[in-house]
Batch of 2 targets.
Target 1
Amino acid sequence: MTMSFVTLEEILAARRRIAGKVRRTFCNLSPVLTERAGVPVFMKLEHQQITGSFKLRGATNAVLALDPETRAKGIVAVSTGNHGRALAYAARAAGARATICMSELVPRAKIEGIAQQGADIRIIGRSQDEAQREVDRLIEAEGVATIPPFDHRDVIAGQGTLGLEMVEDLPEMATALVQLSGGGLISGVAAAIKARRPDVRVIGITMERGAAMHASLAAGRPVEVEELPTLADSLGGGIGIANRLTFAMTRDLVDDVVLLTEEEIATGIRHCYHAEGQVVEGAGAVGAAAILAGKVRSDGPVALILSGGNIDMDDHRRLICGGTA
Ligand SMILES: *Cc1c(COP(=O)(O)O)cnc(C)c1O
């Protein structure tokens, strides 16, 4: 069943709740991408967020929105990495215990990052759905709360604070390029942008390999796709057959979706390193990659998000030295 969309008021409330607990990240003009696109291109440096991704916004908002008794019992979640890391940090900051369940496909660097935040970790199965079943079991057996990575109002509202910052810092923006996986980021960002600037086009960027939201939009309902290894590992995973919010919000608020090949994503990571001086993970680089691939048209300034920087540094080094990771 579809719920009412997350509102601008909820996003403004999220901003008040997480103020001082997350960073307001900078926007940089990219001369190289500007040259390539023929219009100014700005990058929001959200990979410099605490915990290395925007996920801290939604996680912090959702943890603080729990009632204190529930929070005290602890929080469990399934994650491809960045949500788990953010949730571990947000829980600790709020004095709560976090247990993070994840699949075997999650890279080692991400698992270590989560362990360092003090969370308990459980590795279960070869897909996010199998890890989710362990979360369901813990909720049932121990009565703990869960905060899902995207399909949750408080998570979406928290991610939406990023959209508010884009509107305020880049009032001239005509097009926003936003990573698209489960759709929590783009639902929040599009809700914020369209409330303030309905004329701005919001374009979802994702990979060709296992693009669950794209397949679902084409089918007109949430569908499952096979989960495949990709350089943009933070964009992997399904949207949930029982999706309540992000499918409908993405369908109604997002103007277009662009799909990228693995080689295009690799080019994006290399670009961010060599031309921008930024270490960015595959998912974080897809906005830049879409411009470099010539897959985005805009009549005016473009804003994109470097959404995360959590990449295994050995994989990163191999990639920027010309390898395939
Ligand atoms: C989670 C994530 C995304 C995608 O966000 P969704 O809300 O699942 O669409 C993009 N980039 C990074 C770095 C992420 O961690």
Target 2
Amino acid sequence: MRLALDLLIAFNSLAVARASSISQPASDCSSLLNLTLAPGYEVSNAAIFQSETLNASGIVNTVALCRVEGTIHYGHDLAPGDDGPNTLTWNLYLPKPNDYNGRFIAVGKDHPTISMDSSPLRPKAVSLLDIPLGNGGYAGEIDEASMMTQLNLGYAVAGCDSGHSIAATGNSTSAPFLKNNAEVKAWIHDSIAMTTNLTRDLTTEFYTETPAFSYYYGCSTGGAQGYALAQLYPEMFDGIFAGSPGNWYSHLILSFLWNGLHTQRSGYMSQEVLDFITTKVVSACDHLDGAIDGLIENPQLCKYNITQLECASGQNSTTSDGAVECLTSDQISATKAIYDGPKSTIDGEEIYPGMSLGSESSWLLQETTLYTTYSALILKELVFDRSSYNVSKFDWGEDVLEVDQIASPLIDAISSDLSAFHSRGGKLITTQGWADPFNAALWPIQHRNQIQANMSGINASDFMEIFMVPGGGHCGSNPAYPHVPGTYDVLDALALWVEQGVYPAEIKSSDPPDGTNTTRKLCPWPKNARYVAGDVDDWVSYDCA
Ligand SMILES: *[C@@H]1O[C@H](CO)[C@@H](O)[C@H](O)[C@H]1NC(C)=O
Ligand SMILES: *[C@@H]1O[C@H](CO)[C@@H](O)[C@H](O)[C@H]1NC(C)=O
Ligand SMILES: *[C@@H]1O[C@H](CO)[C@@H](O)[C@H](O)[C@H]1NC(C)=O
Ligand SMILES: *[C@@H]1O[C@H](CO)[C@@H](O)[C@H](O)[C@H]1NC(C)=O
Ligand SMILES: *[C@@H]1O[C@H](CO)[C@@H](O)[C@H](O)[C@H]1NC(C)=O
Ligand SMILES: *[C@@H]1O[C@H](CO)[C@@H](O)[C@H](O)[C@H]1NC(C)=O
Ligand SMILES: *[C@@H]1O[C@H](CO)[C@@H](O)[C@H](O)[C@H]1NC(C)=O
Ligand SMILES: *[C@@H]1O[C@H](CO)[C@@H](O)[C@H](O)[C@H]1NC(C)=O
Ligand SMILES: *[C@@H]1O[C@H](CO)[C@@H](O)[C@H](O)[C@H]1NC(C)=O
Ligand SMILES: *[C@@H]1O[C@H](CO)[C@@H](O)[C@H](O)[C@H]1NC(C)=O
């Protein structure tokens, strides 16, 4: 503990030293408008904002900045050019030189916005179902709140709309950008690299010095973008944070479809039924890690037999006052299908991992919105190119092969060969909630195992780690677990690893939705936090074992 604190102090003073080492005067902000740029690149605005004058979704700039805005026109082959029919829109925030920490960071699209009531086990169904498509997984806007957060830490920050506008993400029945292969390719694979190519040069121009280190920070679709960068642009970033990664996007949407189709009609489970399951599962497995804290530390060690929740013959599934008592056999079957995940009808192979024990109370999204918005649109517009495609007819054999052939090359970033990123000294950190309502929590673990298997003689821990979050949601807290901290101290850990070679043996999480001072220890998988002694709500009471 002591050691980690000392290093953190050392790290912060490094930032100060670096900033004060910039002796040359920075370029004037507005002069960035006058640069001669290669064809396709355009700076449309460059202006100074004093501190406390910009507000991005409630996050206000605490430092003065030069805000630069512009576009990149790109063609069918994604090459920038004045006549490129597609447009990427970007922003660059440059803190004033004495607030600059010498580092560049590109932020990817963060997670879909889901506002939910934070009372235990009671998401507000109405807002839960109201996920905006644009700037959720489909992006289309710049994540200015994420940019502002990094700006206030002293980073030069770039962000983009992922290569298409919010209008191109359409509505619940049509997403026009999915019909444009260049835009589809830019979305996850290339938009951050295109943006970084230009904005990092502008950063160098402004401070008259190349950034000392370059980072990428993104979660959800942004996490997929992070793996794409490590795979396709291994030289570009020194450190990558890729949270809750949807990097096997083509099969992630098949898991949405599987879960959605298995819970229609008699397999449907209301929020009350889902809460009932989670309560039973958590109370059976909470103690396994030695701390009774309303959480399953490692769901893989929980051997809960869900069949015991099935109604006895003649038993009503609810009591006379409406409380859930047991599950119907169709609900039990649906539950098992979701834990198992989709399987191919050709060879029984896993198509995507299943959801984990303890995540049930968040499944309403899987039952309703995710398959209609993501699976149906991607299958209809990108894969089968048929306006009338009926997802209920999806063939879990042949159609999976079609998805692999058409969608995977455009939207997946699942190479197990990250050796180029490893050999240039890159570091990658992933966080993943065990109770993520979107992603099967096991996927990042499986993918890391694939990467490890590809590296003979090298320990993948030399350059990448996954931090699983017990009771964690999608890129932050899960409303069903309001006592679980939702802010992960990943960027400091990543920068220490990149810049000083300090291995991230643990990460602190804080800020639970319940407003308490609870902190928890996140450990590099396969290690888990183990209670040692002291306050169960204080991260120092645990070690990683
Ligand atoms: C930018 O160029 C314009 C027109 O050439 C000129 O008037 C202006 O002074 C220049 N601005 C800066 C900051 O160099
Ligand atoms: C920033 O905007 C949010 C709404 O997005 C508002 O609630 C908040 O009061 C604003 N903060 C400041 C300092 O203007
Ligand atoms: C969705 O967008 C398509 C294409 O623009 C349009 O034809 C359709 O009417 C829209 N549907 C809804 C529900 O707004
Ligand atoms: C980035 O710039 C380099 C050098 O100009 C170029 O080769 C590469 O294609 C560019 N990449 C993207 C994604 O724009
Ligand atoms: C699970 O529980 C059911 C019902 O209680 C029981 O019939 C079954 O044998 C159990 N399965 C296992 C693997 O323990
Ligand atoms: C089950 O309980 C519900 C709610 O109390 C009631 O409406 C229904 O009639 C009961 N069904 C049976 C078969 O008892
Ligand atoms: C889609 O297919 C299912 C299963 O065959 C069928 O029940 C449903 O009516 C179809 N939906 C439409 C809109 O055709
Ligand atoms: C790693 O992956 C690459 C690309 O798929 C493959 O060519 C190579 O054989 C793999 N190496 C090992 C050791 O598995
Ligand atoms: C890989 O490195 C990690 C972190 O140092 C260590 O915990 C783990 O035991 C190593 N694994 C192997 C197989 O050496
Ligand atoms: C958290 O708050 C509780 C009660 O308010 C207090 O007893 C405890 O010492 C605090 N813990 C930490 C680590 O600050």
